[in-house]
Write a structure and sequence with these properties.
binds ligand MTE; single chain; 27% strand; binds dioxothiomolybdenum(VI) ion; 19 helices
Length: 749
């Protein structure tokens, strides 16, 4: 089944925030962001801006009736800068005017004078200066100190991974409308409507029940709207509330890129020890997370780095420490994979380093250390229903990887200026929010008198197809066509206290809540049907919109059943609440069972490198992925392709660069290169592993949103292998992205 939205997307009919018809009298906002990365505010002059014709008001921290605070986990992020600014682009004021053009013009008339303060952009420098956002954390397994002596080989190294711009097609934005009794209705392009609602309540000092946040869909989020949509939602709410006029804000691309946080860059040191038979005996790593100027989601992202720093391997002696470092960059934030890709890059680098030193392939080390059933993760969970070996073996066999490797080495021995490279990338990714509390969801189902069904959940549709999957779940329970189902917007008045749609768990959490609601309705409907058929409710069944009695059609339709239920005053509405069972995590011990299950997969990536120019193509991405019983193979395949591409982009070409003053240099699409169709692998093969799927996945269909991102990491190591084939003296380094410029330097030094 296709994504429910695909036809409207293609026709340009889907409504995004900026397409919502504007109410008469709507005002338009523009944000004034700090021009400097760090400074004490000496003077903020808004008078010229305020006196510009058409400007209604310029808001600053002085206008805030409640708290000037939007930090979700730690209260360290003001809505508007007060006495100092901490990153270039930090919101200082909001201009509200009768049109967008005037608002933007007024922004240029605002004058900010600051006394410059030292700018830090490097997390290691921040760590040395004691600039940490919160205390570091360490995960341990076994005994690292005693383990080194038992290793036959020990290697060390340093790794760096860069930031990544989300580049959702729809930029950040919100539209707030005043309503009765001091209430507000806020349309927001957010993955977390409850966070927007809660933060508006805090900043405006009004109760949450006075704020209705509504989201139809996002033009992409990728984690960038999990937390960072909140500030913009609060700004328009503040203006709308104080002016009692509708206020809208939609960022221009250049402002969005400059003002919002990105994937956290990480720098790391590692040490890996192996036995002579290639078992990894010990792995130690210290990672420095570049958190930016405020905490945002960094503690949660740091945690997932710790969880996934051994990727798909069992390493008996492990010690991983992560520091979250305060720098003068926009607060870095969630991005597909949520810290896991950064952690996995370190272990894969350590393996590549060891393989290179031992003159063997990384595949040999990977294979010798893949997780087995009942192995313990460094966070205490025991690996169950472990599929990584099956994925890796299937990949090796299906594509005859050793033959591809052989062909590449034959090619490389006869080709002088063009080289090819191959790398494999296994992935193991835990499903659940690592913060146990967040693993809950609700769904509200109405069956209308005509038999049509309306569904509200906490899930946000952002292109990943969650609404389609949810419609399929309801249609499956009632055995009716998905045409009968309408997915409503996500709305805090209909479904309250939602978790953001993130951690790849949108379909699992909301789907299970929906399943509970639909099953509740089905139970009541069966009693009605049994009365209509004059039999026991165990003997009736709904199949393809018909009522069966003892397996034989009664001719009674779904519509007739619903009509009867209504006439006999049976409730046609149900609310479902789901909380993931079994999971817990004890932070005092850093042990527990945080994940409902793990997703497994393995990819092989091959590249061809032009050694004169440093240019390359990604030839193939061959993937074996454990979907469980996919609810929707078309959507899931799309998620794999999209995730893979985003991963390749992060590893090879997307280079976010700031100068020493903390000013973003790659601030538009002319200076920030994202993959296009020419950068896509020439051939992608996605093979579904034959498995049933775990009970805790929605209808045994495993979460799929983030794991495939990490297949892209294979592109880095495939390129590295191609470089090595040309430049025998190349000492492996681990500094992503491996852009063509960097490749060229490595070919000749
Ligand atoms: N796919 C599309 N098309 N657009 C997106 O914004 N976000 C990704 C992934 N796939 C995203 C996407 C991220 S970061 C997550 S966490 C999941 O989708 C969230 O949705 P899910 O929980 O329903 O998988
Ligand atoms: Mo996804 S990074 O968890 O929004």
């Amino acid at each position: 089944m296709n994504n429910l939205d695909s036809e409207n997307h293609i026709r340009g009919k889907s409504v995004y925030l900026d397409d919502i018809p504007e109410v008469k009298g709507t005002l338009h906002a523009a944000v004034f962001g700090s021009p400097v990365a760090h400074g004490r505010i000496l003077k903020l002059d808004i008078s010229k801006a305020e006196s510009l014709a058409g400007v209604e008001k310029v808001f600053t921290f002085k206008d805030i009736p409640g708290e000037n605070e939007i930090g979700g986990i730690i209260a360290d992020e003001p809505l508007f800068a007060c006495d100092s600014v901490h990153f270039s682009g930090q919101a200082v004021a909001l201009v509200v005017a009768d049109c967008e053009h005037t608002a933007r013009k007024a922004v240029s008339l605002i004058e900010l004078v600051t006394e410059p303060l030292g700018v830090i952009t490097d997390p290691r420098v921040a760590k040395d200066k004691g600039e940490l956002l919160f205390p570091p954390r360490t995960f341990r397994l076994g005994n690292i100190t005693g383990a080194w002596d038992r290793c036959d080989h020990v290697f060390e190294g340093k790794t760096d991974t860069g930031a990544q711009e989300h580049l959702y097609i729809e930029t950040q934005g919100a539209y707030a409308l005043p309503a009765d009794n001091n209430s507000l209705k806020v349309y927001s392009s957010t993955q977390g409507p409850t966070a927007v609602q809660k933060t508006i309540a805090r900043v405006l000092r009004i109760p949450m029940n006075h704020i209705e946040v509504d989201v139809a869909r996002l033009g992409g989020g990728f984690g960038g709207k999990e937390d960072q949509a909140t500030g913009f939602g609060v700004m328009v709410a503040l203006a709308a509330h104080l002016l009692q006029r509708p206020v809208k804000l939609a960022l221009h691309r250049i402002d969005d890129i400059r003002m919002t946080g990105k994937r956290h860059p990480y720098s790391a040191d590692f040490r890996i020890g192996l036995s002579s038979d290639l078992k990894i005996i010990a792995f130690q790593a210290t990672l420095y997370q570049n958190g930016g100027a405020a905490t945002d989601l960094s503690p949660a992202i740091l945690e997932r780095t710790l969880f996934h720093s051994t990727n798909a391997y069992f390493i008996p002696n492990t010690e991983i420490t992560v520091y979250s470092c305060r720098t003068n960059l926009p607060p870095n934030t969630a991005f597909r994979g949520f810290g896991a890709p950064q952690g996995m890059f370190v272990i894969e680098s350590a393996i590549a380093k060891a393989a290179s030193e031992l003159n063997i392939t990384a595949r040999q080390i990977q294979y010798a250390n893949l997780l087995n059933e009942n192995d313990e993760f460094q966070y205490g969970q025991i690996a169950k229903d472990t599929r990584i070996r099956q994925c890796y073996d299937t990949l090796l066999k299906r594509h005859n990887i050793e033959k591809i490797a052989e062909e590449i080495s034959v090619f490389n021995s006869s080709s002088h200026t063009v080289k090819r490279g191959l790398a494999l990338m296994p992935v193991c990714f835990g499903i659940s929010f690592t913060n146990t509390t967040m693993n809950q969801a609700r769904a509200l189902v109405h069956i209308y008198q005509d038999g049509s069904i309306g569904i509200s959940t906490g899930a946000i549709e952002m292109g990943q197809g969650v609404n389609t999957k949810l419609a399929q779940v309801a249609a499956a329970v009632f055995s009716v066509s998905t045409d009968r189902v309408k997915m409503e917007s996500t709305n805090t008045t209909r479904v309250a206290n939602t978790s953001p749609t993130a951690a790849s768990s949108g379909a699992d959490l909301n789907g299970n809540a929906l399943l509970i609601a639909c099953n509740g309705l089905l139970k009541r409907l069966k009693i009605v049907a049994a009365k209509m058929c004059e039999c026991s409710d165990n003997d009736v069944k709904i199949e393809n919109e018909l009522i069966l009695k003892n397996g034989i059609s009664t001719g009674i339709t779904w519509q007739q059943l619903i009509h009867k239920a209504f006439l006999t005053r049976i409730s046609l509405t149900e609310n479902g609440h789901y909380s993931t069972p079994y999971i817990y995590f004890d932070k005092t011990k850093e042990k527990g069972h945080p994940f409902a299950y793990h997703v497994y997969g393995a990819a092989a990536v091959t590249v061809t490198l032009d050694c004169i120019r440093g240019m390359y193509t990604i030839d193939q991405a061959l993937i074996v992925h454990d979907f469980g019983s996919s609810l929707n193979p078309v959507i899931d395949k799309g998620q794999i392709e999209g995730g893979l591409m985003q991963g390749i982009g992060w590893m090879t070409m997307e280079e976010v660069s700031y100068n020493n003053d903390g000013r973003l240099l790659s601030n538009s699409l002319s200076t920030y290169k994202v993959p296009d169709i020419y950068s896509a692998p020439k051939f992608v093969d996605i093979h579904a592993l034959e498995t049933e799927g775990p009970e805790l996945a929605i209808m045994k269909s495993k979460a799929v949103g983030e794991p495939p991102f990490m297949y892209g990491i294979g592109a880095y190591f495939a390129l590295q292998n191609a470089i090595k084939a040309f430049n025998k003296g190349y000492v492996l380094d681990f500094d992503a992205p491996l852009t063509p410029e960097k490749v060229l330097m490595r070919l000749y030094t």
